[in-house]
Amino acid sequence: MKKDSLLKSSLWISISGIFSRILAVIYIIPWNIWIGPVALGAANALYGKVYNIYNLFLIIATAGIPSAISKEVAAHNALGRYDQSEKLLKKYTFYMTLVGIVLAGFMFFGAKYVAIIFAAGDMRVVTPIKYLSVAILIIPALGIMRGYIQGYAFISFSAFSQVIEQIARVAYMLYATYTIMVMQKGSYMSAVNQSTFASFIGATLAYIFLIWMRFRVRKSIPAEDIKTSAEVPDSELTKVNFGSMLKSAIPFLLVDTIMTVLQLFDQTSFVLIYQNVLHASQHTIDNLYSMFGFQANKLIMVLVSLAISVSASIIPALSALISRKAKFEDIQKLLRNMVQFTVFIILPATFGMIGIGRHLWTAFYIPSTLGTEILAVSCIEAFFYCVFMILENVLQVDKKTKTSMIFLALAYLIKVVLQYPLTIYMGAFGPVVATTVAFMIMGHFAFRIINKQYKLVDKLLAIRVLKIVIDSAIMLVVVYGADILLSKFINGQTKIGAAIILSICAVIGMIIYGVLAYKDGSMKILKEIRGTDIY
């Protein structure tokens, strides 16, 4: 088997990430229909709370170790010590399986305490948490296997396993929900329980696929490439030190978890504020929380996935330049391209989603003016989240880990300080605005640090970014106008009508932005990025 090229690897990562996010949004349509309008708010709120908790345990269970395993496996394989790669796989599969058992046990037997800490004492989440604990048993070992496969430079297999995992998970969710809610006329609680158990089904099938791929990968190694211990002295081998890998993984882990931790904070603090200060009913709390904490999040994660996927390929290039002690001008050029490329991709996607927000919400949920407005604010939150994440990664690659961690801590602090007053005065918008402000402020300071060192901002960059902003704004106005005009001829209150308007407006938006970017030269950034050598 031929190893993946860097271009193929990046393409597969992008496709698998975007596909998974889109699939995670599409399944909502039949899921919501089968749950029914009566239990819809409660089911979405419950499912959202449980998955926020699950995501936190998921991140703890993997802890960035798969990436470190991938690097170690690649280092051993480069020296022909494939036997060491096998020992590494067995050793850390055993270790991470133990981690999975401990975390799964904590989730299962301590589900009540998890509910108290992360769900403001909502005991409805206890049973779904127990169902999810089964998935935690296998997720850590799955992560190790993915890292192992990536270390052999077969990124496409690892990415494809994620696609398999998502398809299997969604298929079981929809099958179980239809069976319980439509055929058996059962409880939405049972449907939510089975929907959470679907994570175990998906992870298991992905793990089986990677085990099969492992044997294929091993057979692809020519016998002459395998070296013995005598041929490669131990002094030339990379020493495996789990503590050092953990130390290097923790900063990236903390950055990766910020959105999950803030969502957990939202679901706890929002409920407490609405119960104890505003004295709202559980029905009202469920409906409002499900709008910003689950429904809007599902939609904007497509935007986040797109932004992170297309920007991720730039980070290794920066790492390679810095490690090679490249010329200042080369690093400066790459970072300027990164700024322009990031804005070129994220900003029009954000504006486009805002422009079609009304019918986007209707297509996936039910018509709601409040939901549409929350989605618009959430899109702005997603934009600044993407910018903040990318800048944090740049700081860490540039060996400014301490500064990165300080900015991360300050972002948490700002969010916590603003949460109460903004929720009181802005309702369901409050948590979203608080997060947006935190990312906006600390993203500004992170960019100032980078700009001070590499002097990124000049007249040319300012003009290029301004062109992108103008193009995106024009596209937003045209799309919003087309949305209003089409609504006069097509009934946008139905899901089919909303989907038709949504599709037409999306095509119009892409054409308008593409033509404008081509005319003013903004699209040239794609050619410049394509010509950037990573290694």
From TrEMBL:
Keywords: Cell membrane, Membrane, Transmembrane, Transmembrane helix
Pfam families from the UniProt entry: Polysacc_synt (PF01943)
Membrane topology: Multi-pass membrane protein
Cellular-component GO terms for this entry: plasma membrane
Location of this chain's protein in the cell: Cell membrane
Listed InterPro entries: PG_synth_SpoVB (IPR024923), Poly_Biosynth_Transport (IPR050833), Polysacc_synth (IPR002797)
Domain of life: Bacteria
Transmembrane segments: 12-33, 53-71, 92-119, 131-155, 167-184, 196-213, 249-265, 299-322, 334-354, 374-391, 403-422, 428-447, 468-490, 496-518
Protein name, as recorded: Export protein
Organism, as annotated: Companilactobacillus nodensis DSM 19682 = JCM 14932 = NBRC 107160
Lineage: Bacteria, Bacillati, Bacillota, Bacilli, Lactobacillales
